[in-house]
Amino acid sequence: MINIDSGNKELKRIPLYIQGLDENIQGGVPEGHITLISGSAGTMKSSLAFNVLYHEALKGKICVYCSLEQSYKSLIKQMINMNFDMTKASLVIINDLAELRTVISKLKSKGGGGLVMVDMGCIRKEIKDVKTADNKSWLNVIKNVIKRIKEEANCNLFCLDSLSALYVLSRFENPRIELFYLFEFLRDLDVTSFLISESQPQSSRYSEFEIEEFLCDAIIHLRLTPFRRNVVREISVVKMRSTACNNDIFSLEFKHSRFQAMYGGQNPLL
Ligand SMILES: Nc1ncnc2c1ncn2[C@@H]1O[C@H](COP(=O)(O)OP(=O)(O)OP(=O)(O)O)[C@@H](O)[C@H]1O
Ligand SMILES: [Mg+2]
User: Kind and range of the H or E element at 240?
Assistant: First the structure.
């Protein structure tokens, strides 16, 4: 028999660490949910996801960031430029899956949380022969990595940067079915996931196949809006399941080492 919890138990939430927005989404995304972070080039998708994982690592969580396109070195450079202190977040890089257990146990012995960056080179190494690898190899290795980190260290948060890169590496023949199983896999693992999705400017699509928009629990949309000779960064929550949220468009700034959302529903440019 299925036991449906009818209590008014408060959902545990993960803040987005965006001042001015978290207050408008009941404090954050519900734990265990899958959030799509969608936006065109340079809209700060990676920074926004990194910001969440960084702050959760400071709070003692084990967070895994898997970057398939941008090298971890370039990503870290960007984050250091934004004043993130990598030593505070116990940043570790996984270059070789054979080292996974050692790295994780070191992290655990220190106590507290950590930010684990999975270098794409290590995934490539797992796929013995990239040229003859079948379509599923990348997806399967990524699933295996996150599953192993979950087993070794009870990973709480996961970011895949990006879904779009995954589609290039691991061609999906039947996206509806394959994406359904990928989302189910993440839900079963019980990690809070952030999937980055590259979208075109001015497009009404938030993802490649559009199915992702229905499978995910939340969509955060980032965009750059030109007005005369100014450009404003904008953020909106398109959907967030189990949350009474404000869907207004806010302007987004990264100031004094933190993200801030402002002018919800109002145009700051007029
Ligand atoms: N304080 C800051 N330090 C560094 N970069 C900043 C800062 N504020 C804004 N940015 C901008 O952030 C952008 C890059 O952010 P990020 O890499 O997170 O974007 P992205 O959407 O993931 O990009 P891509 O589409 O290339 O993956 C750059 O265009 C940079 O100008
Ligand atoms: Mg990026």
Answer: strand 230-240
Q: Is residue 66 part of a domain?
A: yes
Are 197 and 211 in contact by the 8 Å Cβ rule? The answer is no
User: Considering the entire predicted model, what is its pTM?
Assistant: 0.94
**pLDDT for the residue numbered 180:** 96
Identify which of 18, 45, 46, 47 to mutate to test ligand 1's pocket (most ligand atoms within 8 A of the CB).
47
Q: Ligand 1 centroid vs 210 CA: distance in angstroms?
A: 25
123-156 pLDDT per residue, tens: 777 776 555 556 677 888 889 888 988 988 889 9
Number of structural domains (the chain) is 1
The answer to the question of residue 270 being in a domain is: no
The dihedrals phi and psi of 185, each to the nearest 5 degrees, come to: -60, -45
CATH number of the domain bearing residue 57: 3.40.50.300
Buried/exposed 30-69: b ≥16 CB within 10 Å, e otherwise: bebbbbbbbbeeebbbbbbbbbbbbbbbbeebbbbbbbbb
CA proximity to 194, closest of 86, 65, 24: 65
Q: pLDDT by residue (tens digit) across 187-241?
A: 999 999 999 999 999 899 999 999 999 999 999 999 999 988 999 999 999 999 9
Mean of the per-residue pLDDT values of the chain: 90
In whole angstroms, give the CA distance from residue 43 to residue 130. Answer: 31
Q: Would you say the CB of residue 246 lies under 6 angstroms from ligand 1?
A: no
Measured from the Cα of 39, ligand 1's closest atom is 21
The domain in which residue 214 lies consists of 34-222
Contacting residues for 173 by C-beta, under 8 A, at least 6 apart: 135
In angstroms, rounded to a whole number, what is the distance separating the alpha carbons of residues 249 and 242?
20
